[in-house]
Amino acid sequence: MFSKITIGKGQSKYDVIIGEGLCTKANFQKFVTKDQKILLLSDRNIPRKKIATIKKNLKSLGAKVYDYEIPPGEKSKSFNNFEKIHNFLSTNAFLRSDAILACGGGVVGDLAGFVASTYMRGINYIQIPTSLLAQVDSSVGGKTAINLKSGKNLVGAFYNPKGVLIDTEFLESLGAREFKSGLAEIIKHALIDNRNFAKYLLKYSKEILNRDSGHLNKIITRSIKIKAKIVTKDEKEQGIRAFLNFGHTVGHALEHYFGSKLMHGEAVAYGMAYEAKMSLEMLKLKKDDFQLIQELLEKFEFNKQLKVSFNELKPFIKIDKKNTSNLVNLVQLKAIGECKIVAIKNINSLKKFFN
Ligand SMILES: NC(=O)c1ccc[n+]([C@@H]2O[C@H](COP(=O)([O-])OP(=O)(O)OC[C@H]3O[C@@H](n4cnc5c(N)ncnc54)[C@H](O)[C@@H]3O)[C@@H](O)[C@H]2O)c1
Ligand SMILES: [Zn+2]
Fold first, then answer.
1. Could you tell me the domains of the chain?
2. What Å distances lie between residue 317 and 121, 274, 303, 322, CA to CA?
3. pTM to 2 decimals?
4. Which of 57, 60, 113, 149 allows an S-S link to 144, with CB 3.0 to 4.6 Å?
5. Are strands 37-43 and 64-70 parallel, antiparallel or unpaired?
6. Ligand 1, atom nearest to 113 Cα
7. CA-CA distance, 171 to 211, in Å (whole number)?
8. Which tens digit of pLDDT belongs to each residue from 254-265?
9. How far apart, in Å, are the Cα atoms of 42 and each of 35, 128, 166, 210, 214?
10. Catalytic residue at 237?
11. Which residue's CA is the nearest one to ligand 1's atom 14?
């Protein structure tokens, strides 16, 4: 059993296939040709057994597979690795007809995608996202990037892959915090698009936290459909794509402040709690919806009291990428499934939400 979602427009359209155990020869056939060189990019945390299966199946289709491992973690999204991989491709005489296959979390995917977008002005790439966050978020939508010392994702490109294979078997080996970090983005997709989906997450929270594969397949598919709908309408973030940033203005500020103590999805979950409070007052978010958001975050255990004040977060809220001139642009909810961008003139007016 698998589901298929098509994303994008025209030439850059691609399919996302979701199911258990998808790394089969049949699924690779569409992307691989005989004698094609394939750079298989991953990190050491990705289960070796799965990598071995992928390699075996690619080779049986006549491809020449080149392994490339990067150290796990955000630091790997660097210029240094970007350059090293380019040199590796060039030394091994990769041509534009060859390909990169990213098998890993968002770090591997973002780096591989950016290399693919620039090597010889663009080489094919395929994504096999292995973390829940990468499966429901970073592998969908064509954003690729590396980091600068001064900030994350500051250098990158919009570049769609040829295809995305979401094999939910990878989730079995994922750490508990990494798993929950991905759940936060799924909750976000439900809150910006669909109350019934939010209710479903609440009802089956226990099964989902226990990684029941039936429920996981359902919520991953539903989540990707929401992101797919948005990024297909607004590929380059000129309008509604910004709604995907619900929870992220405060979330990014928390991430900056707490550093590696807080994972991205965790920061977004707490960010959504703050931004829901703001929506309650500024957009008259319905009380029932507000309560549903609170229950949902609690059920998924995002209800710790964070030790941080408004004044400590303020400098980071000020530098959010969505801001324009002197305005802080916040994504807020009028209702679950209905977003609006609210421009805040006086940042200090947000202070009361942090008490
Ligand atoms: N391109 C986009 O649109 C987009 C969207 C959201 C996030 N991102 C980026 O994604 C990155 C975060 O993604 P992430 O949370 O996947 O980070 P990650 O790639 O660092 O993965 C998290 C951890 O899980 C490990 N891991 C991954 N899959 C595993 C598996 N199956 N079994 C065991 N361990 C596994 C990794 O080695 C790593 O230690 C950030 O760099 C962020 O900027 C990009
Ligand atoms: Zn996010």
1. 2-173 (3.40.50.1970), 176-206+234-354 (1.20.1090.10)
2. 35, 13, 21, 10
3. 0.96
4. 113
5. parallel
6. 1
7. 8
8. 999 999 899 999
9. 21, 10, 15, 26, 27
10. yes
11. 106
